Structure formats: C-alpha cells, structure tokens
Amino acid sequence: MESLSQTEENYLKAIFKISERDGDSVSNNAISMEMQTSAASVTDMIGRLSKKELVNYQKHRGVSLTDEGRQVATHLVRKHRLWEAFLVEKLSFTWDEVHDIAEQLEHIRSRVLVERLDEFLGFPRFDPHGDPIPDADGNFAVRKQVPLSELAVGDEGIVVGVQDHASSFLQYLDRVKLGLGAKVKMLEHFEYDESVKIRQSPDGELVLSKKVSQNLFVQKK
C-alpha cells in the first residue's frame, strides 16, 4: 500500500473510533466533529481515502472502513496505546499528560519498533486509561464492564476504564481518587438529576454527576 500522510491516518483512526461507538456506518458530520474541520474538508478526504480503497462511501448511508482501512486504523490504535503505556509506566507521565504525545508517536512507521515496545512492556492488554491494546494481529482484549451509572444500589465494582480522555476529567478523577483500580459501592441514585452516591473504599462517600458516572467504566465484583 502506498504511504499515507499523517492527516489520512488521523481520519482513518477517527472513523474507527466513531464506528466503535456508533456502529459501522459513520456520517460525514460525525467525522467533521471528531476532526474539528469543515464538511468540505471531510468530503475531500473521504474521496481520497476511497480512491485508495481504505473506505467505502455510500450517499445517505455514510462511510465505513474497508478491511485494509481497518487494519491501518487498528495498527494506529495499537501504537497510540502502547506509547501511552510506555510514557506512564516507564517515563512517569500522568494519565492526563500522554494523549497528545502519543498522537505524535503513533505515526512512527517501524513495525519492528512497535513489536519490541510491546515486548518491553510485557505485552500489556490495556492502556493507562483502561482501553484495550490490540495485539499484533489486531485482536482486542474483551472485558466485562459497565458504566458506573448502571450499577444497582448495593452493587460493588472496580474502576477499570474511562470513556472521556479529556485532561480536565482525568485530573478531576485524580482529585477525588477515582483512578483505575478504585473500589466503589453504589449507595444511591438521585432521580432529580440522575447523579449518584457511591462509597469509595477507603475514602468515604462521594456524590458524582450523571456525566461523571456515565464516563467511568467498572467491572462488577
């Protein structure tokens, strides 16, 4: 396959990310929002990627990745998450600092480097945000998890991931000590604003907004 620009790679990864969340068929508008660019720019890029047989586009049905396009996107995700793991585990970055750096490092093309990085880290299955790291064959680890908001009163769980990677959200979680591995128990759901009260061992009770509880993934005990 001919070499791709960083922008083309970023579009493929964006389409992959949206499709994982919303389904295989992705609208131009969703891509425009994800990439923070104009609709005209998206249309132009979809045309380029389609000519390279990396995406399929059908009017009124949206954009989907071809098998080759999915392979490229999955490898980018693999590199990004491995670099995040490296930055946190080996260089002592915090989980809210690594995204932008990994965005730059993911475009390094050496597959040998990526495989040695994976081996050096001990073949991690999840990155510092709890997202699965695809293996060399593009397979993602599967883990049973639910949004914290879906726990019933009395349910207990362990925080295993986040939906929102914004630095402000991750810094908030650090302040309230709700990082990965935190143990929680659902105490109450508030009907008025859909906030929740939890017990966070061993630090006591905490009220979380609907937005926070929906963006935290837990594994039920």
UniProtKB/TrEMBL annotation:
<feature type="domain" description="HTH dtxR-type">
    <location>
        <begin position="4"/>
        <end position="66"/>
    </location>
</feature>
<dbReference type="Pfam" id="PF04023">
    <property type="entry name" value="FeoA"/>
</dbReference>
<dbReference type="InterPro" id="IPR022689">
    <property type="entry name" value="Iron_dep_repressor"/>
</dbReference>
<dbReference type="Pfam" id="PF01325">
    <property type="entry name" value="Fe_dep_repress"/>
</dbReference>
<dbReference type="InterPro" id="IPR036388">
    <property type="entry name" value="WH-like_DNA-bd_sf"/>
</dbReference>
<dbReference type="InterPro" id="IPR036390">
    <property type="entry name" value="WH_DNA-bd_sf"/>
</dbReference>
<dbReference type="InterPro" id="IPR036421">
    <property type="entry name" value="Fe_dep_repressor_sf"/>
</dbReference>
<dbReference type="Pfam" id="PF02742">
    <property type="entry name" value="Fe_dep_repr_C"/>
</dbReference>
<dbReference type="GO" id="GO:0045892">
    <property type="term" value="P:negative regulation of DNA-templated transcription"/>
</dbReference>
<comment type="function">
    <text>In the presence of manganese, represses expression of mntH and mntS. Up-regulates expression of mntP.</text>
</comment>
<dbReference type="InterPro" id="IPR007167">
    <property type="entry name" value="Fe-transptr_FeoA-like"/>
</dbReference>
<comment type="subunit">
    <text>Homodimer.</text>
</comment>
<dbReference type="GO" id="GO:0046983">
    <property type="term" value="F:protein dimerization activity"/>
</dbReference>
<dbReference type="InterPro" id="IPR050536">
    <property type="entry name" value="DtxR_MntR_Metal-Reg"/>
</dbReference>
<dbReference type="GO" id="GO:0003677">
    <property type="term" value="F:DNA binding"/>
</dbReference>
<protein>
    <recommendedName>
        <fullName>Transcriptional regulator MntR</fullName>
    </recommendedName>
</protein>
<keyword id="KW-0238">DNA-binding</keyword>
<keyword id="KW-0963">Cytoplasm</keyword>
<keyword id="KW-0464">Manganese</keyword>
<keyword id="KW-0678">Repressor</keyword>
<dbReference type="InterPro" id="IPR022687">
    <property type="entry name" value="HTH_DTXR"/>
</dbReference>
<dbReference type="InterPro" id="IPR001367">
    <property type="entry name" value="Fe_dep_repressor"/>
</dbReference>
<dbReference type="GO" id="GO:0003700">
    <property type="term" value="F:DNA-binding transcription factor activity"/>
</dbReference>
<comment type="similarity">
    <text>Belongs to the DtxR/MntR family.</text>
</comment>
<dbReference type="GO" id="GO:0046914">
    <property type="term" value="F:transition metal ion binding"/>
</dbReference>
<keyword id="KW-0805">Transcription regulation</keyword>
<dbReference type="InterPro" id="IPR038157">
    <property type="entry name" value="FeoA_core_dom"/>
</dbReference>
<keyword id="KW-0804">Transcription</keyword>
<keyword id="KW-0010">Activator</keyword>
<dbReference type="GO" id="GO:0005737">
    <property type="term" value="C:cytoplasm"/>
</dbReference>
